[in-house]
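Lab notebook, design round three. We kept the backbone fixed and only want residue identities now. Task for the bench partner: fill in a sequence for the structure below.
Input structure tokens:
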């Protein structure tokens, strides 16, 4: 009986004894790499902001910040949109896709990295390219949030596998 009580007490304390995962700061808007995306797409679609929103929504660790990430203390996930294709016309103009790279840095050292690509052919009732890219951003956000649970080097996420 005493052993059972001790074991029960230890099991209750386990979450408190486990090391807490550090908060990871991400950009509030994922920047585009040079030459990626048309001027119209960059101006009209906010899918790259939505990527950050979805990472925060689905991750237990991520917080978005609009400040200069090089001044942030603690782990930082540097993200870049490296590819986007979104012809106008929503579902009617063919597939839309986007790709994002990420480097998780802690103390100036890269401790994790990934390439994530998601492609959407049909997305319900999205009649605009920006609407379809919203579905792409949600998928990428979920992928990155899951990767943050156990970051690895050179991971291939989503359709990048």
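Proposed sequence:
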């Amino acid at each position: 009986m005493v052993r059972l009580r001790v074991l029960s007490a230890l099991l209750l304390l386990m979450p408190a004894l486990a090391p807490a995962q550090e908060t990871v700061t991400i950009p509030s808007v994922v920047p585009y790499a040079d030459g990626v995306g048309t001027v119209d797409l960059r101006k009209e679609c906010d899918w790259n902001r939505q990527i950050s929103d979805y990472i925060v929504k689905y991750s237990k660790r991520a917080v978005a910040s609009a400040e200069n990430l090089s001044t942030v203390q603690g782990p930082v996930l540097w993200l870049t949109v490296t590819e986007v294709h979104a012809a106008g016309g929503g579902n009617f103009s063919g597939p839309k896709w986007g790709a994002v790279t990420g480097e998780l840095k802690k103390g100036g050292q890269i401790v994790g990295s990934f390439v994530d690509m998601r492609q959407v052919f049909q997305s319900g009732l999205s009649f605009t390219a920006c609407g379809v890219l919203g579905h792409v951003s949600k998928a990428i956000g979920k992928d990155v949030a899951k990767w943050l649970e156990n970051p690895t080097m050179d991971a291939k996420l989503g359709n990048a596998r």
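Keep this in mind before ordering anything: The radius of gyration is 19 Å.
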